[in-house]
Amino acid sequence: MGERILIISNEKRDVELFEGILGSKGFDIEAISLSDEIEETILKDAYAVILGDYDLIGNRSYNWIKILQENRSKSCFILYGEKIKSDETSEILQKGVYGFIPRGLLSERIYDTILSGLENRKAFVEILGMIDELRVVNESLKREKEALRTKNQELGFINRLTSEVAYDLDWNGILPKVLDAGLLNVFDVELLSIIYRIDSKWNLALYLSEKEINNETLERLKRNIVDRYFTLSKESILIKEMTFQLYPSNLTIMNKSRQTGVKVSSSSPISFSKPWILPLTLANKPLGMLIILPKNKEELKKGKKELMSTISNILAMSLKNAQEYHRLKEMAVTDGLTGIYNHKGFIDLTQREFQRARRYNKPLSLVMIDVDGFKDIN
Fold it and tell me: Could you give the residue ranges of the DSSP H alpha helices within the chain?
């Protein structure tokens, strides 16, 4: 089967002429009259050449050219006729028609014009192929560039996080340090929570991207996070004895009469769907827990899992160091047998209280009691 040619004409003699000239050259001729189905037919892109009777088609040809170009059709569009002005011929050629043949010269020119149009089509198809290849390469480069940018951003965050918290012994402001290191640049989060213990004191730090939250929601979040940690470690935590920090500091806590802000569903264990939960563990012993709730509720994918694992390892190491430091510090200022402050602890305590009294301009009293025979008690 040769190249397929579509004839758009209501003139039987035109179709017979083309079949006689082009059919004998091996072309497969198919004719269609002017109808509402022409646009659907030409967009099948099954035709090497589309021949149209301009006397019949008229200005519709401009719309069809536009449709063919927008759909990146590989068909070569050729018009013929006699009712056309010279300026119209120039315009349709500029719009994308390959050629125009006067009706009186059809017999002489149609075959050569078809061959020339097919050569032009071949070059056009090659150009389209090159454009497609370049687009694929460009898209691949864009993806690689974006992946590299993301990876550099993640590595920068890990470097800053390590520098900020890896050997930080004061965990009172751990969450702001994590945020300052750039966590929000690598994760688009709705909620970020760290729960941990220093000595016997439990602490919960919570970041919310919302501007407002009602108090009932906030208390429910605390309970849900504590319940999550109990599931992980089997350790019970009394919420009322836990130190709680909420970020950002300008976040508004509303009363129950206003129900905007973070929405909570009682059917969800943590009141949100698909949270990312990572335990902060060393030697398989839970020291705390990190929770991230992504805004788009996406699953934790492989690349992000590796990043989260690195974050949890850095925080777990830092937390362990802080716990050990606090334990050694307590040992240095307390009596190992009774647990009460020794001389150093007494000096540290009085210095802190004197500083507090000066800061708040309050009086300070010191009561000393002498206990006879304390060695016997000890």
Answer: 12-22, 38-42, 54-57, 60-70, 86-95, 106-165, 174-180, 183-186, 215-233, 302-333, 343-360, 374-377
Helix, strand, or coil here: 213? strand
Q: Averaged in consecutive runs of 10 residues, what is the pLDDT profile of the chain (378 residues)?
A: 84 90 89 80 82 88 85 87 80 85 90 88 79 87 88 91 85 90 89 89 89 83 89 87 86 60 44 76 87 78 81 91 82 71 77 83 85 72
Count of beta carbons in the 10 Å neighbourhood of residue 269:
10
Q: Is 134 exposed, middle or buried (0-12, 13-18, 19+ CB in 10 A)?
A: exposed
Rg (CA), the chain: 40
Alpha-helix runs per DSSP H in 23-167: 38-42, 54-57, 60-70, 86-95, 106-165
Q: How far apart are CA 211 and CA 213, in angstroms?
A: 7
Instruction: Indicate the pTM of the whole model.
Output: 0.57
Q: How many residues does the chain have?
A: 378
Residues 6 or more apart whose Cβ sits within 8 Å of residue 235: 229, 286
First to last CA, the chain: 110
